[in-house]
Amino acid sequence: MAMEHKVDPLFRPLTKNTQANVIARPSLSNGQQVIRKLLKNKLAMLGLFIILALVGMAIIGPNLVPYSYSDQSLLTKNQEISAEHWFGTDELGRDMFARTWYGARISLTIGIVAAFIDLVIGVTVGGIAGYMAGRGKRGDRIDTLIMRIIEILYGLPYLLVVILLMVVMEPGMLTIIIALSATGWVGMARLVRGQILQLKNQEFILAAQVLGAKFSRILLKHLIPNTFGVIIVNLTFTIPSAIFAESFLSFLGLGVQAPVASWGTMTNDGLGVILTGDWWRLFFPALMISLTMFAFNVFGDGLQDALDPRLRD
Amino acid sequence: MSNYLVKRILMMFVTLWIIVTLTFALMHAIPGNPFASESDQLPEQILNNLRAKYNLDEPLPVQYILYLKNLLMLDLGPSIKSDSRGVNDMISDGFGASAWLGAQAIGIALLFGISLGIIAALNRNKWLDYVAMALAVLGIAIPSFIMAPLLINFFAIKLPLFPVATWGTWMHTILPSLALAFGPVAIITRYMRASMIEVMNQNYIRTAEAKGIPMFIIVVRHGIRNAILPVVTFLGPLIASLITGTFVVEKIFAIPGIGKYFVDGIFNRDYPVILGTTIFYSAILIFTIFLIDIAYTLIDPRIKLTNKER
Amino acid sequence: MNQHLLAIDNLRVNFKTYGGEVQAVRGVSFYVDKGETVAIVGESGCGKSVTAQAIMGLIPNPPGKIVGGKVVFEGAEISHLPKKELLGIRGTQIGMVFQDPMTALNPTMKVGTQIVEGFVRSHQVSREEARKRAIEMLSLVGIPDPEKRIDQYPHQFSGGMRQRVVIAIALACQPKLVIADEPTTALDVTIQAQILDLLKRLQEEQALSVVIITHDLGVVAEIAHRMVVMYAGMVVETGTVEDVFANPRHPYTWGLMRSLPRLDEGEKQRLIPIEGSPPDLFNPPVGCPFAARCDFAMEICEQQMPVTSEFGRGHQAACWLHDPRAPRIEELVAAGRQGV
């Protein structure tokens, strides 16, 4: 009866529409977001491309030319780059192209295997230390013991230790890998322990414990997957540092022995002839080392950014 | 404070002792004897004399005790390959060149690294930032043993501005210092940039802005001081990497430093020299880390030496 | 002359992000007179802090930018001043108190130095004088033993003490206006009351003008003379604290009041939250931003921005309900909508 005057249709009350409140914004899963962000990072993608290209060339490169890395020919020594010898030849007439990609096999294998061993030891030791910390007196003691050892090893200059070990051991690929891994796992172990200590106090781990999950299961199913991101990022930095260490050793004459070639030994050889103007001897192996370091580092940076939830857009 | 210092100094010696023991054990774990290469040529009598001189006839524990005893009197022992000169002589010969080279490289690394990091952080995502970061990536990608020949090629051979190698005048020191500092510059730049970006986003920077302080003064007074702290912690690993860097740089530039003696020692399998120089390096490193820890407490008032024990 | 100390006119601030441009402040107007405390109230993300930063010229640019409107301080427009002249206003004319005292102080600088840093710059005083001033300021904000305290570092102060230091910093150059951005949010309840008392005392003693930003209506009732209610980057209601509390005119303000516990309603009362969440400011609605959450929304609310109605003594609200064409609120309540 109060509504006798004509109501403007615009002023008719709305029926409540709860859907209007929902902010429509597509939500992506964690993995999708990481990959999307990584794909958008041009520098990281360039790094990935270079890594794949180097690995590809290490596999097929030596077969692209009709020479092996050790074929000597006094007729063709010290040749500049040409249609015959794409990267030139060395003082024994060996084809630098074949040697460079053969060296890639050696350098990349050493780098990847050493980094992988670091990963296995580091994750195991770090995981155990992190899990044991705070589990009663015995657990704490195990953690403290492991951390003491890690602290001492961490305080030593990595390359100095590797050099000393190489002095003692017979030179060769296997011993280089052993020397590199001897203290190389320490960084990974510290990282994993820190991550696990942080994760441990979170509720889903507590829930798993309450449900009676076994130690190994919690470690494998919960703790390791949740530290996966930092482990992968760390791997993209340990691989180039192992490759660097290998070339450093080879450069000092402690690496692989002739006629086997690695980028480090080839750089060392190239340095010997720098005054004669045979630039290709130094250029190609040095370029490959630098490209490898560059590629892994920018890819690792990109991955780290992509995994960092604070940097999400 | 003094209590902590005493404890800290004691720990320094314990660490050094562990390193000495490990290195000693490692050097004596080598199969065969260090004179293997010469024993074919040397008469048995001379060989025995040599062994006696180096205490090689004694059982290993006795050798170890004797070595420690000499070490306490700061005697790093004789060299096997050089009759007249012991490890001490080598170190005192090489120390001047190595220390000069190292100090100059640290200076360059800190000066350029910190400035580039600050410039990059303040011009985030502008071209100056990209230039600084490109330099940083190059510094990480190009190891010193590649940088050194590059520098020689361009600035000593193509453009004869500097001497190719050896040691003598100040001009001789420039290329090796640059080669040595290039990697550390890159790492410090990255550290400093990240740290500076974080600090400049802190609330206390906004507080200072609200006081009406000009941006330049805020950067200097509030920004750099706080941003430099993480860089200080990096100085330990930096010194370690400089030490290993001198091995190759001194070798490439033929600089008569400790690094060259160390590398020659490796090449000649001169174990007392390797052992002695390793101990010397470790001592230097442990001592610098100790100094850095003290410096850290002076910069950051939140950290007191007394409550640093975990 | 009837000039306001601070007048903000149709201020608009945008932020560029990867997802597009956020319109954080969309045409805000209000004023502050000499010796008065004005509270800006609203939920997080409503643009109240951005408004405060815009007054000081502290909007980080990029990504933020003042895209329209004016900030007039003592008759002069200050929102587009060059950096140099802005420095002359910050600290000396307008002081600012920040939300989180734990992070608002430089951890590596002595407290006394931080307090007088701006004073030393603007007054060119000697070390002795600066020290004297720092001691004076610390005792003004009620910190005991100021002679000793000025040489200490922030980590040696408790949260409440640090907030007192932050207030001392804001007041060190005797500004005419102090902007306090959620000054009590990060503090314990008992400390909150102390800090509010301090602000109130200082405001009265020094005849300060204060803009206090808060989401806490209790704080408003305690300290403010007038209040500005913001929602989704706009002012929805403004007036004296008495008028707005006694007679709120905007459905959002009703919602705020209903979600506040009242002592006079006994134990039976229910706190009623405002359902839903504020609109997406990447793409704000053309009509009233509150329409989607409003119990009284009408067709027009979704289509046109409401006009501002005046209820006397400066009490204003932007809502279509006050249009003569709108049905009366009582009728809507009778029809089963939530009441006041």
TrEMBL record, chain A:
A Pfam family that the UniProt record links to this protein: BPD_transp_1
Q: Which UniProt keywords apply?
A: Cell membrane, Membrane, Transmembrane, Transmembrane helix, Transport
Signal peptide segment? none
Q: Which GO terms describe its cellular component?
A: plasma membrane
Protein localization: Cell membrane
Q: Name one GO biological process term.
A: transmembrane transport
Domain named ABC transmembrane type-1: which ranges? 104-300
The chain's coiled-coil residues are: none
The Swiss-Prot or TrEMBL record describes its family as follows: Belongs to the binding-protein-dependent transport system permease family.
What is the protein name for this chain?
Answer: Diguanylate cyclase
Origin organism is Brevibacillus fortis
Q: What is the lineage of its organism?
A: Bacteria, Bacillati, Bacillota, Bacilli, Bacillales
UniProtKB/TrEMBL annotation, chain B:
**Leader sequence residues:** none
Q: Mind telling me which GO cellular component terms the entry cites? A: plasma membrane
Enumerate the PROSITE patterns for this protein: ABC_TM1 (PS50928)
Give the record's GO biological process terms. Answer: transmembrane transport
The protein's location, in the record's own words, is: Cell membrane
InterPro entries xrefs: BPD_transp_1_N, MetI-like, MetI-like_sf
**Which Pfam family would be a valid example here?**
BPD_transp_1
Q: Membrane-crossing residues?
A: 9-30, 99-122, 134-157, 169-188, 227-249, 279-299
| Membrane topology reported for the UniProt record | Multi-pass membrane protein
Where does the ABC transmembrane type-1 domain start and stop, copy by copy? 95-296
Q: Which UniProt keywords apply?
A: Cell membrane, Membrane, Transmembrane, Transmembrane helix, Transport
Protein family according to the UniProt entry: Belongs to the binding-protein-dependent transport system permease family.
Protein name, entry field: Peptide ABC transporter permease
Q: What is the lineage of its organism?
A: Bacteria, Bacillati, Bacillota, Bacilli, Bacillales
